[in-house]
Design a protein that fits this description.
Layout: E1 2-8, H1 13-17, H2 30-45, E2 52-55, H3 59-71, E3 79-81, H4 98-112, H5 123-133, H6 142-162, E4 167-172, H7 174-184, E5 199-205, E6 208-211, H8 218-227
Parallel strand pairs: 1-4, 2-3, 2-4
Antiparallel strand pairs: 1-5, 5-6
């Protein structure tokens, strides 16, 4: 069985000022670096040794992984990037303010087509709405987006199982992690608002994922206690 520690990257410049990052990228802030340093120290304090590491090919996930591996004493393990576990692509809205897209453009689209509803609309509806209004032609349909997310994480898990890995760490993105959890466990509520540096616990065995605690901040909290002693 493969134990998977699925991490949302550390806090970035765009996270801090409320901009939709998507496939665009900004570096971790000083607070973001501190947060994933805490995470690495928390892993170390728990004695977790990783056999393999994976991240998207975005700079913010690569930077996050560096802090995790260095501070958990897991440097030197096999590590590769996989572009399939990137964040959602927001097309021409990449880099725009979150409020403009999620509180402005999308509700107007849903209202126009009669699908406006209370609470968060499902991922398929959101993805296809972004695709419909993207003027750059970069955004993905839900079929494309969900397909590459599921394929990417599944291939990582299969590769790790074949290598007899017990513990792996993956750094990905908030909306991508939320979508993946919903895809593998559709009966669960779709996770929203995952904190930077949070951990979602999964296992993989014989072709099946199981979901444990989602958005776990206990490793960061433990690391913070170590730093502030």
């Amino acid at each position: 069985m493969v134990n998977i520690y699925l991490v949302r990257h550390g806090k970035t410049m765009f996270n801090t000022i409320g901009r939709a990052q998507g496939w665009s990228d900004t570096p971790l802030t000083a607070a973001g670096e501190m947060g994933v340093t805490e995470l690495g120290l928390g892993f170390k304090a728990k004695g977790i040794k990783f056999d393999r590491a994976y991240s998207s090919d975005s700079g913010r996930t690569i930077q996050t992984m560096g802090f995790i591996l260095a501070n958990s004493e897991n440097e030197g393990i096999p590590y590769r990037f996989d572009k399939r576990i990137r964040e959602w692509c927001f097309g021409s809205f990449d880099g725009g303010y979150d409020g403009e897209l999620f509180d402005g453009v999308l509700p107007r689209i849903f209202a126009e087509n009669g699908s406006l509803e209370e609470g968060f609309p499902d991922d398929e509806k959101v993805a296809n709405a972004i695709y419909a209004v993207d003027t750059a032609g970069w955004a993905e349909t839900w079929e494309q987006l969900s397909g590459r997310i599921l394929e990417g994480f599944t291939d990582i898990a299969k590769e790790s199982e074949a290598a007899d890995a017990n513990n792996i760490v993956i750094v990905s993105h908030g909306m991508t992690i939320g979508s993946f959890v919903k895809l593998i466990r559709p009966e669960l509520p779709r996770p929203h608002g995952l904190d930077n540096g949070s951990v979602t616990h999964l296992t993989y065995e014989n072709g099946k994922f199981s979901v444990g605690k989602v958005g776990d901040m206990s490793y960061r909290e433990l690391g913070n206690k170590i730093l502030t002693k």
